[in-house]
Write a structure and sequence with these properties.
- The protein is mainly α.
- It contains eight helices and 13 strands.
- It has a three-stranded antiparallel β-sheet.
- Helix 2 packs across helix 3.
- The longest helix is centred in the C-terminal third of the chain and has 22 residues, at about 220-245.
- It starts with a helix and ends in a 12-residue tail after the last strand.
């Protein structure tokens, strides 16, 4: 059940994204129907999973990374599974389930890392010690957090979430350089490291950044609109130029520090925003 919290949180997003919350099986074509046609209430199923996460993973205001917990293992979850949980909670809130959404979205602050001697720009760390963020910082993760903060702004009408989302724009800019004509690296600690396959400019980091920037552009202060839109367009053009496969309009996974394109089919990303 290792990293079950991530799978559970992702399931919440899938379960709760149905418009009506109920989906009925309707057979098409000549076939033998199953013995019974079960009507699944996906909203209720999503809430059930959410409650299981609370029961088995919640510890204080955060969540464990693993279950069952081994002796002495007090590891908190990584940022990305925690953020998936906030997304599921947003959908459940829309469906009028009481999931204490505000507390969950505010919990992202435990992963925040202020600028310091090592990090010139503040951003969200990939893990937390229960007080602040730590470890590597990933640009795709930060964009996804930004999207979640904007979802919170829409639901809670609190400008604090809009302001926090705005801070992520500056962090994303710190991930861009002129190597290969622009684009954002995947990991802050692995920029242009020859021979390391994790040192790359991927579709996920750049694609999520475009999605976040365009969503932020819709609601950001007027004085930032020109800057944010220009950045989104710049990344959009970089992805098309460097990672687009014109034969099927899908996108290759990444371009590494040597300039090699990763053409692993199972890793290719179709960006529905492009």
């Amino acid at each position: 059940m290792k990293r079950f919290i991530y799978v559970s949180a992702l399931a919440l997003s899938l379960f709760c994204s149905c418009e009506t919350g109920v989906e009925e099986w309707n057979p098409t074509g000549p076939q033998t129907p199953p013995p019974s046609q079960e009507v699944v209430d996906y909203a209720a199923r999503g809430y059930e999973v959410f409650e299981l996460v609370q029961e088995y993973y919640k510890t204080g205001n955060l969540y464990r990374e693993n279950f069952p917990v081994q002796s002495g293992d007090g590891t908190y979850s990584f940022l990305w599974p925690y953020n998936c949980l906030t997304t599921g909670a947003a959908f459940l809130t829309d469906l009028e389930y009481d999931v204490d959404y505000k507390t969950l979205i505010d919990g992202l602050s435990y992963y925040w890392m202020e600028s310091n001697g090592q990090h010139q720009v503040a951003g969200y760390g990939s893990s937390t010690d229960g007080t602040a963020g730590r470890a590597d910082r990933f640009y795709d993760d930060n964009s996804i957090v930004g999207i979640s903060l904007l979802e919170a702004y829409e639901r809670l009408n609190d400008e604090a979430y809009l302001n926090r989302a705005g801070q992520i724009v500056d962090f994303l800019k710190s991930g861009k350089d002129n190597i290969f004509g622009g684009g954002i690296w995947w990991n802050e600690s692995l920029k242009n490291v020859a021979g390391n396959e994790s040192s790359n400019k991927p579709a996920c980091a750049n694609g999520y950044a475009v999605q976040f920037l365009l969503k932020y552009y819709e609601v950001c202060p007027q004085e930032r609109k020109e800057e944010v839109l220009a950045f989104a367009k710049e990344l959009y053009e970089w992805i098309k130029t460097n990672l687009r496969d014109n034969t099927d309009n899908c996108y290759w996974n990444s371009k590494d520090a040597s300039g090699t394109i990763s053409r692993r089919i199972y890793n290719r990303l179709l960006l529905n925003i492009l």
